[in-house]
Amino acid sequence: MPTVLLIDDDAALLDVLSLAFEEAGYDVARAADGKAGLAAHRARAAHAIVSDVNMPHLDGFALCRALRSANDPVPLVLLTSRDGEIDEALGLELGADDYVAKPFKTRVLLARVAALLRRDALRAAHAGATGANDAAMTRGALRLNAERLEARYADAALTLTLTEFRVLEALARRPGVVLSRAQLLEQVRGDGSVVADRIIDTYVRRLRRKLEAADAAFDALETVVGAGYRWRSNE
Amino acid sequence: MSDARAAWGERIVDRIPRLRSMRLRALLVVVIVVLSPLGLVAASSWIDESVGRRMAADVRAAADEVAAALATTPPAATLDDVARRHDARMRIYDARGEIVAQIDRDDGTHPLQSLGMLLFGADGAPSLAEFDATLGPVSQREESLDAASTRVKCRSSDGAKLYVCSAARRAGDALVYVQESSRRPVRALYDLRYQIGRLAIVMLPVALLLAWWLGWRTVRPIEDLRRQVLAKAAVAAPGADLSLPRRDEIGDLAAAFNGLLRTLDDRRTQNERFVADLVHEMKNPVAAIRACAEALEARSDDERAARLARVLDESGAKLDALVTQLLDLARAEAGMPNEARGRVDVAALARGVVDSLRADSRWTCAFEIDAEDAAIDGVDHRIEAALRNLIENAASFAKSRVRVRVRADDRVAIDVEDDGPGIAAADLPRVLDRFFTTRGRAHGTGLGLALVRAIVDAHGGSVRAESGESGATFRVAFPRAR
Predict the structure, then answer these.
(1) Cβ-Cβ contacts under 8 Å, B312 against chain A
(2) In which domain, by residue range, is B413 found?
(3) What CATH number is associated with residue B460?
(4) What share of chain A is helix, strand, coil (3-state, %, to 5)?
(5) Mutual orientation of helices A106-125 and A162-173 as an angle, nearest 10°?
(6) For testing the chain B interface, which of A18, A19, A33, A81 should be mutated: the one with the most B CBs within 10 Å?
(7) Cα four-point dihedral sign B195, B198, B200, B206
(8) Contact with chain B for residue A102, Cβ under 8 A
(9) Which of B272, B278, B281, B290 to probe by mutation at the A interface, max A CB count within 10 Å?
(10) Which of B59, B163, B165 is CA-nearest to residue B117?
(11) Do the Cβ atoms of B324 and A107 come within 8 Å?
(12) Are residues A70 and A144 in the same domain?
């Protein structure tokens, strides 16, 4: 039974989340701030952490940095409530695995955590192995493995957050079709959260940068002014 | 009283619009100042005449009094009493022409007299005694010859600097002789009138030039400042950067305006931050409410409880949308100071928005677009959001089609027209207000069109709604990119 550590200074929300995760069959540990959360995780390592960003003592960003600088790869989902927090977090390249905006649908959060745990499990099982996989999709030099949430471009592995992966997957799945920011947001987050849909711009910008790092000539992610984005169709 | 005068002044100023200009007023003042010596000449001529008349009457009265008093009182006592009242020089001669008594109170020691002399007196005028000595024996003088009743004679000294009135009167054997003098103020000025006039003519152009220069130096920066301040008023987030590099009162005024702008800017920032904080604080409870609703809905076997849970969830969702849009609105109304501005291709944006709406199955109406190439300076995604809100709003009312037109002349005009029921005339002025809606609360937050207006305002543009037989039209205009 996987353990999930929930960290939030809002007691009501922490309560509801605990119930939901317990009901979904997780072992739940709780903490009211980052410092307590870090201590709890060190005392008893969780399989995944869901943490608020804005907290006293140690905020979500600092918690993330503390974990990653200690080489702890535990899947971490940050809950953001401030417009621009995701932007900021992405810009800082904190190494969180995903960001979910408050308020969210509990089942979406559960699904995210489940996906991250599955990815971890698959990675552990296939450590070092790169063979073909049923869930793989190929678009030119891009290979996506939805099962393992793995992306490779021209054989270089891309390190993507869960949401980045979903944006890329949504666009690559339908080459030539324009997806509006709202559509992309709905597809990749599906959490009914109200986030400024400009957050998609940040995801696409980061995706482009990561893909260009793999191939300087990469230009398949097109901006369609006023409408959204599309994966350039080569057919 | 002073109110009445101020009102009168305003009436004058209103009647002659150009008088409002400080430049013209300065010129008027200079003209008056330069020409004032000529006015002084005219005024002192009048003063002089009246002084002369008064002196003549005074010496006559004094002589009469002395003559009347001599019958009963010794000459010296008489003179003492009368002279004190008239400030005159008095002498009494006997039949042989010898002085019996004399007194001189016209010696310039009287304080008022001294002051008058200091201000108006002609320089280098002889004293009364000196002048009198040049007139010959008193008994031979014109006024003394037949002085059975009082006779008065007024004379001017050479150069007319001293004016003397003498009264003579026989009283029995004695001759009473009374004199008063005045240094003639006017005489000297009057003699100078042509020089003064010439001086004024020479001075006037120089003075006018100086006044014009001074007015120009004063008025021009004020007009410059006014232009800058007016420009600030048209901008949603004016920076405190009025530039008027002057180290004088007008420079101080510009600095004061900048201080005011900074204060406004601080308030605006505080407001925006407050709304952001508020929204942030609301997100947590809303998240808890929605999570609860979801949990209740999932585990509820009771249809009624499930329905209640759905209402809870939908209300939470609406509250969420509301506070988020409120934040957007607050930012737009604050002028979006922290958002990157650049050149925005409005035609491409409009086509893109229309394309994405055509592809969206929520909308069943047809979208027509006719866009000229047009670019404005602004925040691209805000402009896009405004266009999207307008077009979606039109689509939600349209029966069969929405028409979007983009035109560029000196401004970039965007018209969004639907063929829906139109807007009641009474509602037209309010459709862009926050929380105004004719659809009821089921649709949207009531902030969509308010957001459009805030975004358009923040770009120095304008938006208005029109309604006709065939539906409603929203007309947006932006300043064209330079």
Answers:
(1) none
(2) 342-479
(3) 3.30.565.10
(4) 40, 20, 40
(5) 90
(6) A81
(7) negative
(8) yes
(9) B290
(10) B163
(11) no
(12) no
Q: Is residue B432 part of a domain?
A: yes
Q: Are residues A89 and A173 in the same domain?
A: no
Question: Does A156 lie in the same domain as A185?
Answer: yes
Q: Count of A–B CB contacts within 8 Å? A: 100
Residue in chain A closest to B321 (alpha carbons) equals A194
CA distance B164 to B129: 11
Q: Per the structure block, which two tokens stand in for B111?
A: 């304080």
* Number of domains making up chain A: 2
Chain B CA closest to residue A84:
B276
Task: Identify all chain A residues contacting B356, using CB atoms and an 8 Å cutoff.
Answer: 178, 180, 226-228
CA distance A155 to B476: 50
Q: In CATH, what number is assigned to the domain containing residue B167?
A: 3.40.1840.10
Q: Which of A55, A90, A123 is a domain's end point?
A: A123
Q: Please name the residue of chain A whose CA is at the shortest distance from the CA of residue B388.
A: A226
Q: How far is B293 from chain A (nearest CA, A)?
A: 10
Q: Tell me the three-class secondary structure of B166-197, residue by residue.
A: EEEEEECCEEEEEEEEEECHHHHHHHCHHHHH
pLDDT in tens, B250-304: 888 888 999 999 998 888 888 888 888 888 888 888 888 888 888 888 777 788 8
**Residue ranges, chain A, pLDDT below 70:** 83, 87, 91-92, 126-135, 189-196, 234-235
Picking from B280, B349, B381, the nearest residue to A198 by CB comes out as B381
Average of per-residue pLDDT across B54-77? 85
- Residue B475's pLDDT band (boundaries 50, 70, 90)? very high
Confidence of residue B12 (pLDDT cuts 50, 70, 90): low
State the Cα–Cα distance between residues B153 and B56, nearest whole angstrom. Answer: 8
Quick: pLDDT tens for B298-310: 777 788 888 888 8
Determine which of B356, B358, B369, B376 to mutate to test the interface with A (most A C-beta atoms within 10 Å).
B356
Please report residues of A whose CB lies closer than 8 A to that of B283. Answer: 81-82, 102-103
Q: Are residues A114 and A8 in the same domain?
A: yes
With 0.95 as the threshold, say if the pTM is over it: no
Q: What is the CATH number of the domain that holds A142?
A: 1.10.10.10
ipTM, two decimals, is: 0.72
Collect all residues of chain B within an 8 Å Cβ-Cβ radius of residue A180. 356, 359-360
Long-range contacts of B360-364 (CB under 8 A, 24+ apart): B360/A180, B363/B392, B363/B395
| B176 and B262 belong to one structural domain | no
Q: Residue A97 is part of which domain span? A: 3-123
